[in-house]
Amino acid sequence: MSKHFIKPLAASLLLAFGAAQAATIQIQNRDAVGVGFNDPTPVAPVGGNPGTTLGEQRWNVYRYVADIWEKQLTSDVVITVSAGWEPLTCSASSAVLGSASAWNIWRDFAGAPKANTWYPQALANKISGVNQSEGQPDDGSGYGNVDIKTQFNINLGKPDCLAGSGFYLGLDGNTGGQINFVATLLHELGHGLGFATFTRGNTGALLAGYPSAWDHFLLDNVTGKKWTQMTASERVTSATNGRRLVWTGAEVGAKVPEVLALGTPSAKITAPSSLTRALAIGTAAFGPQITATGLSAEVMPVVDQADGVTGLACDPLSAANKLAVAGKIALVDRGVCSFTVKVKNAQLAGAKAVLVVDNANDNPPPGLGGADNTITIPSARISKVDGLALKDAMKARTRTRSGLYITLGLDMSQYAGADLMGRPYLYTPNPFASGSSVSHYDTSAFPNQLMEPFINADLTTILQSPKDLTFHLLRDIGW
Q1: In angstroms, rounded to a whole number, what is the distance separating the alpha carbons of residues 283 and 445?
Q2: Phi/psi of residue 375, each to 5°?
Q3: How many Cβ atoms are within 10 Å of 110's Cβ, its own excluded?
Q4: β-strands 179-180, 167-168: how paired?
Q5: To pair with 380 at 20 to 30 A between CA atoms, which of 84, 95, 142, 292?
Q6: CATH number at residue 337
Q7: DSSP code of 138?
Q8: Phi, psi of 47 (to 5 degrees)
Q9: pLDDT of residue 3
């Protein structure tokens, strides 16, 4: 059997099963003097990280995370990771935290589980027992035999790059509202080791005409087809088919009942009867969780006085808005300030719960990120389309009554983040999200999973049952 390799365009896979020994991860620092891992800026030790310079603390986190993966994986071939800090896309309100990809991918190597199928180099090496890139001509990139290339945003937390929300470099998870670099790096190395497809979801094109190992396990619940059975146009539709694309691997399927909670959160319109239906929601990482008992209340919109239309709730609510939302579910708009600020302002005004209307056409809606231990009411995000429909239904409201009632509760017929057969959803928002769609678990999973598209505050460093499904999915594809 001949082997073939190619440079992938996006991130890829992770994890171990069946090799003779634990894995060894070798980190190559590619930063220049005084930059990134070599930054000499003095800092105080934090959260179990004893480093006394910014660069040293960054390196300590990287080594800490690599050690976690080493204990989880098995491979006789060293896994080589090129690591660096670079300016990545960001603004004052959003930022790319980092990215990772397999530097080489291979098909038809000795022992490949599936013929004519792409595997990331770290996994191909593990399966074959040899370094696939050894002896290959230099590609001129400077990365040589690197298995995984990673980069993280060196500007994060600066005024023009998600101001004030830098990486937390402690090892204890007590982030204080900052972004947990341990969880972020665990996630990105997962992609580099292979938690992804190499197929282009926005065009449906297979890489060089061949599917990824990932694609063999993707099933669309509408068409009944796996991605390996679809045309390119069918894959494009499937990649934006919200909560319809599932993972069919046996290892993951067996562990779903141990990891995911029974009950899928939803917001059900109960009155008026002409509007009765269930709305898809994205739950909040903060505040109390939505329960099976449910919370029912009338819905009232927050209306900011500035334009008389939107309800951003970024400032303490006016007397009129307090009167409207007290004892009710407050409907607020996404934008300008954090989700926690909006929910806290509604809580202080006496609201029983909050629904945040998305300002993008995402469907299904992602969750609400953030952390605030003083928030005591539940909240969730609904889609822009559903939000506009609710507002339209409340046009004839009075100052304190709308006649629109919603119950926030759980559908106990399925696990949170899985279909009725217990197969976890993949992330397939509409519109397509480059770099995120298909290659993550869906945001409806609860408890939150490491390989969702967003880093949540409740993540642990445990990569398998009963906390997480990452390890089990990677076993499905060959680790």
Answers
A1: 10
A2: -80, 125
A3: 13
A4: parallel
A5: 95
A6: 3.50.30.30
A7: P
A8: 50, 45
A9: 41
Is pLDDT of 17 > 70?
Answer: no
Among left, alpha and beta (phi > 0; psi -120 to 50; other), residue 209 is left
Residue 104 and residue 106: Cα distance in Å, rounded?
Answer: 7
| Count of C-beta atoms within a 10 Å radius of residue 254 | 12
Tell me if 418 sits within 8 A of 262, measured CB to CB.
Answer: no
Coil vs helix vs strand at 115 = coil
pLDDT tens per residue across span 433-466: 999 999 999 988 999 999 999 898 899 999 999 9
> Using CA atoms, how far apart are residues 211 and 112, in angstroms rounded to an integer?
13
Backbone torsions φ then ψ of 241, nearest 5 degrees: -95, 85
* Confidence at residue 348, expressed as pLDDT on a 0 to 100 scale: 98
Alpha helices in 328-412 (DSSP H): 339-348, 384-393
Name the nearest CA neighbour of 265 among 287, 246, 249, 237. Answer: 287
Return the closest-CA partner of residue 479 out of 220, 213, 258: 213
Q: Verify that 427 and 367 share a domain, yes or no.
A: no
Complete edge-to-edge strand list for the sheet that includes strand 4-6: 4-6, 105-107, 119-120
Confidence of residue 14 (pLDDT cuts 50, 70, 90): very low
d(CA 372, CA 389): 30
Say if pTM beats, i.e. exceeds, 0.85. Answer: no
Residue at 26 is within a domain: yes
The answer on 423 and 400 residing in a single domain is no
CA–CA dist 331, 311 (Å, integer): 8
Helices 54-72 and 181-192: crossing angle in degrees, nearest 10, is 50
Q: What are 239-292's pLDDT values in tens digits?
A: 998 899 999 999 999 999 999 999 999 899 999 999 999 898 999 989 999 998
Kindly state whether residues 175 and 40 are assigned to the same domain. yes
CA distance 327 to 383: 23
Joined tokens for residue 34: 């005084």
3-state secondary structure (DSSP) of residue 181: helix
